Amino acid sequence: xxKIALAVLIxxxxxxxxxxxxxxxxxxxxxxxxxxxxxxxxDESIIEIYDSEKLLLKKDYTSKDGEHGVIVEHAxxxxxxxxxxxxxxxxxxxxxxxxxxxxxxxxxxxxYELENYLSEIEAIAQTDFxxxxxxxxxxxxxxxxxxxxxxxxxxxVNLYDIVTH
Length: 165
Hints:
Elements: H1 2-18, E1 22-27, E2 33-39, E3 45-51, E4 54-60, E5 70-77, E6 83-90, E7 101-105, E8 110-113, E9 122-124, E10 130-132, E11 136-143, E12 152-158, H2 159-163
Antiparallel strand pairs: 1-2, 2-3, 3-4, 5-6, 6-7, 7-8, 9-11, 10-11, 11-12
């Protein structure tokens, strides 16, 4: 009888547990700033940046229907703690070849969209990236031109060069 009651409780409450919001905290290497990534019930993301428990910036990537927002899959600080970089993908499966990468620049308290600094025929193809000290990232690009036809390539991008030009 106890086993049946336990099974019924698990069946009733399991959906509630799976719909709970998720949260991931990533502290900067210097320990002075942290980024918190919240996922709603569809895992669409909200990013908050804190300095000593004070909210500095909030970016909401959620959508009302849970299918037109983005989900942060990979995120990390640069070794110098100046940039917080994160790769995303569409929550609704739209444009599976497209994985935007945004980054937060601590000095300006601002978020930049990396794709704004690529050519018109390029898009970021993977949420993964590799950071090299102090603030260079290596990303995977897809060529969208008719000639390039979806070819993938790797590119190094210096984040400091972007924010200073």
